[in-house]
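Hello again, I could really use a second opinion on something today. I've been staring at a protein lately and its backbone has me curious. You're getting the sequence in one-letter code plus the fold written as tokens. I'd be grateful if you could look everything over and explain what you see. No rush at all, and the record is pasted right below:
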Amino acid sequence: MVLGALAACGPEADPQSPALEPQEAVAGFVSEASFLVPVAEGLTGFVPGVTPPSVERAAERAAERAPMLFRPLGCATARSAGAGVALAMVNCRVASGLARVEGTLTGLLAFTYTVRMGGVSARVESRGLRVGAVRLDSLALDLDFSYRLGRLRMDVVSEARGTNSRAQMLHRTGRYAAVWEAATACFALDGSWLHAGGGMSTITGYRRCGARCPEPGGRLVYSGSRGTVVLDFQGGTTGRFEANGVTGTFPVDCGE
């Protein structure tokens, strides 16, 4: 599964016209969610009650696997120290399979694993992360992991601050759940985000396996004081959107 981060531009400014690109509506929070898989890779093979958790081994495994998730190969490097991992990205192509957003990803992501009662948690942080014209001055993700029937679930609390592609303030907080199935490279996402100014985004039923297109049924809804943007994934390389009563399609970056 090849992951990058989508531009973290998001709909921080309420939609004012159909000209608001639907890619921006989905890109904001998916940028942070796309970083969950490198963290989850460190726990591949860990089974609560069977395999004793080792945060040091998790960090080593994540440092080995995380660079392989980004393209072109070699654009990302990682190293581990104790329970922590530093992941550096320089001009990585932006393609997470959700939408096509211009620009490349450059910045440093750091995460640390912690053993807690009954499982493992992680803290992910970044400062000065850039995706094209978008800048994240700060990004923080707190993850709690649980494991059941071959699926690794991550319950996430997040906060991001910066500026979007229109040089407007970006500030969002989120609570969401992601599921990673390493054997099939399937990723599922459900949750909600609050945006500066009172807007809210929710995503439901999103699921993607490997490089294949997101499965039909996934939906993003953004609602703010000036309107609503709805994006529906339909299982192919295009999805449908409705922005303040105007409908259209948007590209989905995927393929067999």
Q: What stands out?
A: The chain has one domain: 22-212. The radius of gyration is 17 Å. The chain is about 10% helix and 50% strand.
